[in-house]
Amino acid sequence: MPEFVRIDGLKRYFDVSPPWLVRKLENRPRQIVQAVDGVDITIAKGETFSLVGESGCGKSTVARLVVGLYPPTAGTIAFDGHDMAQRRKGSETSALRRRLQMIFQDPYASLNPRWRVFDIIAEPIRAFGLARDKADLRKQVEDLLRQVRLTPADGAKFPHEFSGGQRQRISIARALASRPEFLVCDEPTSALDVSVQAQILNLMMDLQRRLQLTYLFISHNLAVVYHISTRVGVMYLGRVVEQAPTETLFRRPKHPYTRMLLDTIPDLEMTGRQRMPVGGEVPSPINPPSGCTFHPRCPFANERCKIERPKALPIEGGSVACHGIEEGRIPVEERRYEKAS
Amino acid sequence: MATNNPPLLEVRNLRVEFPTRRGTLIAVDNVSFEISPGEVLGVVGESGAGKSLTGNAIIGLLEPPGRIAAGEIRLEGRRIDTLPYEEMRKVRGARIGAIFQDPLTSLNPLYSVGRQLVETIQTHKQLSATAARARALELLKEVGIPGAEHRIDHYPHQFSGGMRQRVVIALALCADPRLIVADEPTTALDVSIQAQIIALLKRLCREHKTAVMLVTHDMGVIAETADRVAVMYAGRIAEIGPVRDVIKHAQHPYTKGLMGSIPHLGERGERLTQIDGSMPRLTEIPRGCAFNPRCTFRGERCLVDRPELMAAGASRAACWLHDARGVGAPVAKEPANA
User: Fold this and answer.
1) CA A77, A68, A145, A95: dihedral to nearest 10 degrees?
2) Of the partner residues B46, B224, B263, the one whose CB lies closest to the CB of residue A195
């Protein structure tokens, strides 16, 4: 598979220390959140790579790093062979930036309430100079509105006149305005009702097919991720603990954390399967546990897991960072899912 | 399960209105249901369907200007919707417990959780301070807070989201209520914590024989917890029945669409069933069946007559498809986003 986006050893630490004076007076140490702590991912052209995990695992930080909203503390992000961190001429940077766009979670906060929808969608076209003249700009915006199943007349309205789902369509139209090849979608449907979520997911899949888009999809909803992804990465406390092609990950999950997450998916088929409530909570990323960060919650943890940080080892077209799997201590497990009746 | 026992809670033709400058909005319209002792009734719907308002009306906490305009609510045979504020305050807490979505705003940040529990216990029960504290500790242990002995003197901000929600559940259980109204109790929590809280709620209600009205937008939570489920749409109940029947054999086109739009494990990369359009605003609820503009099965009758709940399979649905006269001549669905 030709790689389109390559992320190597990506780290991002945030300094959340109290102010200098407070530290000195109260003799408190610096505090560093290791939000992303060594992530390696490659994404092929035309696929949907999803990152899942619970809140605080660093998945949204990865999304923001990829589009350049935060500079990384360490590591590289290469987009179509170009290192994003490299200094280059302004025109080259903007040519590169045009090709990647982002869709945010909250369609209420991500649209300027004082701008008309037309201007919101036209902004990237103007910024990158993609329209020949006014008539061309108008035509492009109208086409974009139609692509997301809104009408050209909606361009004259303000964001508050739309429902959450329609606003998310506007966000998608804006993201598509610069004709990008790569879209980073940070929980695009989690603020929406299920029936609207279905509309947006269908739209995203249609657009992907039509425009050959590549998605990095961030979500905490495993059923949604299963539905739209080609490959999935599971994050825990700033690290990717397992990544695999979707079917492999859901049918033969390896990492104990992945299994735990799969156990929490609500059972709509009413098979009487009991959700396995797991004990414990995600520890603070300020002071993560030693060794494998999952060891305090892991039923298979032993001494080695407490001391040594596991490396990601290739397995079944993906990779897993787990000593138990490496040593063959953890039994392989097959899961079956029934089709909806 | 529905039995022949007298219902614990009986809601009849409930109507909640909001007077506004541009006329009265009907947010909950002609809603009737009952809950038997020990039963878990799920109330599911999308934002704005009126599910939370129904819950708030029952616990007597409708935000003004919202008000109950018609109908009645009976708890153990006694009418509670007309009670004066002070009387209702005694019912709330003692007979009905409440759990809200955001555990942080349900707790007072200035008091330790122990003090809040003790205060609630002493409000509703004649207990000495020592006995109340012992009871509070017992409750914290029961809801699974590790190290309850010293956690009891901690403040809400020292607890994580999941632990806070456990404290809120302990608060709701203080006076051994007969009914708990839980409004989106797991929505603000991570999936793994969600499963813990649901398991806890189920166990406690079984042990205390408490009935629960579980308001949520999450069908998954309903499927695992509820005995019966009411699906709400635009302020009305679209369908109500045993949870298995509603999920597996939905009778109302809206419920069918809703079930189809939830991504399933087991089928991937296919289009999800989608219901075009969105729920109407309260100001523009269409004539006839409120769902008709989005319905693929609609007929002439749906545009004019509003259906009431009628027998449909093992459930009851508000849809003319289940009426002997049917929907009338078919009418094409309105085009999406017109």
Assistant:
1) -70
2) B46
